[in-house]
Design goal:
The chain is of the alpha+beta class. The protein is built from ten helices and twelve strands. It has an eight-stranded mixed sheet with strand order 4-3-2-6-5-1-11-12. A four-stranded antiparallel sheet has the order 7-8-9-10. The radius of gyration is 17 Å and the shape is globular. About 5% of the residues have low confidence. Bound molecules: aspartic acid (ASP). Aspartic acid binds next to strand 8.
Length: about 325
């Protein structure tokens, strides 16, 4: 039997045990395990990698703890604008959306674009017309509201700063004890097909229609059966410039490095040299996985048909 595997993340950044209460930690672990189990169940039942990453990311989007879907961060104008992408490594099909509001599950809209449109990437208010036509579930603004994200934004809204959940002293003190986390999933199914999906609310207090790496195919999300499926989390601007997700694939394809070696090179060398704090999760078509990060922590988990079943937050 071929090995099948699912890995997920709920964001990387300054995640320290000293900032965490036992209750909060338990909530994160529960949310991550639920997403892991839902996605893995799809693979166990013979579903595709695309279906598995979609199922896992929907659970994380619905969980208010994570910065995606419900619980997304506030923009400068006090709204939630979300980005998401999905890619199928079996045929390089991809779908992505940027800067959309009121979409309950942005990953589903990205999937709909991949499967039922002639396009790859839709953005802004007009993307809603497509969502409505396809019967994608919408929610009122209230649904996305969370008090802790609102409080986080209130501390910043009169400044010109926008906060990533990653590094930077000012942000660190603002974020102390707060919750954050872009979400993503990668999977390798029983057929050896791989897929990746990533979803985010982006940065707190973002303005001017800022978009990060998440919906950019090759930067925050990429999948190719020949090499790997990758979902990133971190300082989006740097991940865009590094073309981080595709870089892992290119290193595997052209240099012959394995998944772990290629991911380690990008996360712990190239991104570090560029000042790009964060991490990524990846699988290859043999069902191997890796979850490197160069920040203090990364919400993450992996389940595989070889018996692996782990949810982790900190470095050790
Ligand atoms: N990469 C995301 C962005 O820049 C943020 C994150 O991973 O938390 O929008």
């Amino acid at each position: 039997m071929k090995k099948f595997t699912l890995a997920i993340h709920g964001g990387a950044g300054t995640i320290l045990q000293t900032d965490m209460t036992p209750q909060l930690e338990a909530s994160y672990q529960k949310g991550l395990q639920l997403a892991l189990d839902k996605g893995f169940e799809v693979l166990e039942l013979g579903g595709s990698a695309v279906e598995a990453v979609n199922a896992a990311v929907i659970i994380l989007e619905d969980d208010i703890l994570f910065n995606a879907g419900r619980g997304s961060v506030f923009t400068k104008k006090g709204q939630q604008e979300m980005d998401a992408a999905i890619m199928d490594g079996s045929n390089l099909a991809a779908g992505a959306i940027a800067g959309v509001r009121n979409i309950r599950n942005p990953v589903q809209l990205a999937t709909e674009i991949m499967l039922h449109s002639d396009h790859v990437f839709l953005a802004g208010a007009d993307a809603i017309d497509f969502a409505l036509r396809q019967g994608i579930k919408m929610e009122a603004d209230d649904y996305f509201f969370s008090q802790f994200r609102y409080d986080q934004w209130k501390q910043m809204r009169d400044t010109d700063n926008s906060a990533l959940d990653h590094g930077n002293q000012a942000v660190e003190s603002l974020m102390k004890g707060k919750k954050f986390g872009t979400v993503g999933a990668v999977a390798c199914d029983r057929q050896g097909n791989v897929a990746a999906a990533t979803s985010t609310g982006g940065m707190t207090n973002k303005k001017f229609g800022r978009i990060g790496d998440t919906p950019i195919i090759g930067s925050g999300n990429y999948a190719n059966n020949k090499t790997c499926a990758i979902s990133c989390t971190g300082h989006g601007e740097i991940f865009i410039k590094a073309v981080a997700a595709y870089d892992v694939s290119a290193i595997m394809e052209y240099k012959g490095l394995n998944l772990q070696e290629a991911m380690d090179l990008v996360v712990n060398r190239k991104l570090v040299e560029m000042g790009g704090e964060g991490g990524m999760i990846g699988v290859d078509a043999l069902g191997n996985h890796s979850m490197p990060f160069n920040s203090a922590g990364m919400y993450r988990g992996a389940r595989s048909s070889d018996g692996t079943n782990q949810v982790l937050i900190y470095r050790n």
